[in-house]
Amino acid sequence: MSTLGPLWDRLRPVRIDHLVRDESAVSIVHALRHRGVYEREQAEREVANWPINVASAILALDHRSAGIRIQAAEQLANAPINHYAVRAGLRRAVADRDPRVACEAANPLIEIGDVSALWPLLEIWDEVEIPERASRAAERLDTATIDQLLTHKAASEESDWALGFVLRAMAPRVAPHLAERSADQDRRVRLRALNALGSSGDPSQAGAAAACLKDRSKKTRRAALGALHGLGVGSPDVIALLSDPCDLVRRAAASLIGAVNIEGGYDALLARLKRETDESVRGAIVSAIAKVGGEDVIPLLTEALAEGTGGDHYRYPASASQAAANALRELGRPGIDVLLEKAADPDIVVRRAVLGEVGSLPRDHRVAQVLADALRDDGLYVTATDAFTGSSGPVPSGPSWYMLWNHTPVQASQDVLLPMLDDPASVIRIRACRALMSQEVLQVAERVRRLFAEDPDPEVRGQALRTLGAINAPGLRELTTPLLDEGDPMLAEHAKWAVEHADLVATVHRQQQRDPWATG
To answer: Which of 304, 346, 357, 406 could form a disulfide with 324 if both were Cys (CB 3.0 to 4.6 A apart)?
Structure first.
């Protein structure tokens, strides 16, 4: 009987009137092809009043062509979602092996809060779209589904990461429940609840996170610290975690102390810094000390700039050195003065840490001179060039990538760069010319044009062409046309780049409705 049972279940007549409609609409559609006349008639009567094309769309979901299945999902997505057959077809489609079919079907189900449609969306890995998709889904999901989300067995780390976005988006509505589940016996549930709790914006639930600081699992301890950080609440137990065996836990504890200034935390950070061996944790401690101690810790930050230097120093700054440079910049003028002084440090690692912060400062003559000096340094000229051609302060908002790259011309930059176009070394002239690629002013255009006409080095002349193209200087076509027709092959390549880039810049200027070369 055990062998014949499944076979009989497949062969016995379908009784349409015995089926649960909401779950069996797909079976009803397939009964349209049943061998029994009675069963076919029952199915035909059932689908007679369905929305148009729903039956054919459900049948098409079994087609071997993904294109046909996508079209079927589109038809169902545009059909009345309140009809049980449409919902059943869409649920069938979200399980399709092709992610395009699943996405097409999932969106309308998400709109009505059907959590079953969420899982296929989480499996489609797209780092850009997932946050937006998750937030949209969280707005539609009923708060009763929170336990389904917390206990869901994700198919991969990526889908579990995506699920976290949904939970964090729902957190403000379900904060008390997240706090309750943070004590769950299932470690996976505890982690998800804690990771979402920090986004709830409800400090009254911080006690649940603080209770997990002594959990046996290092992942849970770290998640508890993250939840407290998100809620902006500290706990005396955090200080003890500066000695935790896990590097990640110690780093999170240091960051939390710096964020909420726990009583006794400053002294604990200073003591831990003396014996901490992990580079990333040292960086977090330095940042936390700067936030808690303010300008009083400038000597300590100045000393930390040199961490990782010496005979066997790193090629790039250690985390503590980078953190110290960043902290000095954020302290304002007293810290910035230290950075500018250290820009001439004999060790390139210190200079590299400093330059990474100086490049983002508002441009004055002192900052511009530090960057100009870095152009002469073979290990730093790329960073200095990026600082000159990029923003000299907060990145301006705009609709195009060009607005993120280009910045308003700065007189201080022109004052230090234009004299470098007369440097005896051709490599310095090239670097200075390249650093002028965002200075859309007539003085720069005329000087670079003269550099192209007079410089004996073809590489310098080629860079001059590129700079003229980057600022779409007047008269560029007059220079490039002869080169494109029958000029030197190397200069012709530079001329081609200049013309193409100038066309792009001109398009952006038209979109912005501005003309940097307009007179009057």
So the answer is: 304
